């Protein structure tokens, strides 16, 4: 855990503020790579993940952007209650959305607040001298964060703005129809936006391993009414998971802690190996191919299709 102080807060767009964080002790922050995020531990007891959007070489500070979401579970509301001078605890950066070193060309797509990791990627690619283009999509110009920075950046000629309320709305099929050889696609934003971009790429036969994504929120899914059992391989102990409770919650009641962060199946923190049984995957972290292997699952949100799961715990 790292103790930091909010040294700057600025409005970037409607309902989007940026926060600059520096270590309380004045020491440099840990280095990070483009696409990384930090866990922010709020005074309310909530933990939330926010992507770093400053340049990776800048370890004097971390910069994050936060959307004040009307459907917030409390995290964004708490963040928007912070003021300059407030203290927080954060984790070291983790990267589940890295750039691919061997990519010949990078196509970056951001929807709304999804610009935060994408902006960091653009800065890193520009500093490397690597070719890329960035497509930034919002409903309207007043909802576009970091607009002035993007227009004044050294890579401004590589940035394309798309607004739903103008003729410049993104035509994903046109943008993706003739990719350069070795192109990789990176997308972050609302689920509907991401699914549209990724679905178009798949229809145009982009290789699955050239498509990279990071979700900010899991979609609402209909929960199974079925209960099931989990067996811990280390002890042989069986735990019953009733309707309405997650594996993480039931095990925690018995003093068995599984590390969690997002609690939505987005971050992969709680990923657990499955030795027997068939999971009912509810996460957005693993790929379709990983789901089909059924050898791991996210106990914070996923359930079981079989009567029991044997876990490597």
Descriptive overview:
The protein is an alpha/beta fold. Helix content is 18%, strand content 30%. It is built from seven helices and 18 strands. The protein has helices at residues 75-79, 115-128, 147-152, 172-176, 191-203, 247-253, 288-293, and strands at 2-13, 16-23, 37-41, 47-51, 62-67, 87-90, 105-111, 132-138, 159-163, 183-189, 211-215, 228-232, 238-241, 272-276, 279-280, 296-297, 303-304, 308-311. The strands form four sheets. It has a six-stranded antiparallel β-sheet. The protein has a five-stranded parallel β-sheet with strand order 9-8-7-10-11, with helices on both faces. Strand 3 (37-41) and strand 4 (47-51) form a beta hairpin. The longest helix is centred in the middle third of the chain and has 14 residues, at 115-128. The mean pLDDT is 90.
Describe what is shown at a glance.
It contains seven helices and 18 strands. With 313 residues, the chain is of the alpha/beta class.
